[in-house]
Structures are given as C-alpha cells and as structure tokens.
Amino acid sequence: MQKFRFPLNTVLAYKQQIEDSLQSEYSAALARVREQEETLEALRQAYRDCGAEYTAACGAGLAILEALAYQGRLRAFEREIEEGEKQLKQLQEQAEEKRQAVVEARKETASLEKLKEKKLGEYNKAFSKSEELAVEEFISAVRARQQA
C-alpha cells in the first residue's frame, strides 16, 4: 500500500502560513497598543505633576504671567491626552480586527487539520485491513502447501 499523502497538504501549509503571518500582525498591533498606553500614562503623570507644581506655586504667590503659562501647559497636556486616548482607541480597534482575523484563520487551519486526521485514520484503518488480508492469504497459502 502506498504511503499516506494528504491531497490538501499544500493548502494546509498555506493556511498555516497565513495564520502565522496574522498572528505576527496581531502581536505587533498589541505592542502598539501597549506603547500608546505607556505614552498616555506618561502624559497623565506629566499633567498631574504640572498641576501639583501649579498648585504649589499658587500657594507661594504667583505672577499672572506665570499662572497663565501653567494654565496653557495644563490645557496643552489635556489636548495631548485627549488625542492620545483617541489614538489608543483606534489602535485597540485595529488590534481587535487582527485578533478576529487570527481566530478565523485558526478555524480554517483547524478544519483542514481535522480533515487530515480523519483521512489519516481512514488510511490507517485500510492499511491494517490490507495487512490482515495479506497475513490471511499467507496463512492460507502455507496451509495449502502443507496439505498438498
């Protein structure tokens, strides 16, 4: 009997390659999300520090120009934080799209792998049956020779 050959092996390999590629893209998207979260946290910390500095300076007496400068910096931080949050949301949506693509690719790969396992099981069953028949024929031939 011939060696087992899965006819869709090239398709399976291609699907696995696509799945690996999508998984890499998903990992990169998650890394961008984490990086943006860190950037956003740094901005928030800078905003808190500036606010604390402003409060301390107000308590010690502050010139109007300095107060306006602090307020301007605080507003700039607020805008940057708002923009960073928008960007974070966008990156999270992109990461979710990549995750969905990975899930779909995994389903396709898994279905082909199950089909391959099923075909291999059928092959092994047929191979065992052919082995049994060969053994039975051999035994019959030996008995026929012994009786002759």
Description:
There is one protein chain. The protein is an all-alpha fold and 148 residues long. It has a single domain (9-147), classed as Helix Hairpins (Orthogonal Bundle), CATH 1.10.287. It is built from 2 helices and no strands. α1 packs antiparallel against α2. The longest helix has 84 residues, at 64-147. It is rod-shaped, with a radius of gyration of 34 Å. The model has no long low-confidence stretch (mean pLDDT 93).
**What is the helix fraction of residues, given as a range?**
over 70%
Give the strand tally: 0
β-sheet strand percentage? under 5%
Largest sheet: none
Structural class comes to: mainly alpha
- CATH class term: Mainly Alpha
Order of helices and strands: HH
* Average pLDDT: 93
According to CATH, the fold-level topology is Helix Hairpins
Unreliable runs = none
**Gyration radius, to the nearest Å?**
34 Å
What is the terminal-to-terminal distance? 31 Å
Overall number of structural domains: 1
* CATH architecture label name: Orthogonal Bundle
Overall body shape: rod-shaped
Number of contiguous helices: 2
Keywords: Bacterial flagellum biogenesis, Bacterial flagellum protein export, Cell membrane, Cell projection, Chemotaxis, Cilium, Coiled coil, Flagellum, Membrane, Protein transport, Transport
Coiled coil: 19-118
Main location: membrane
Subcellular location: Cell membrane
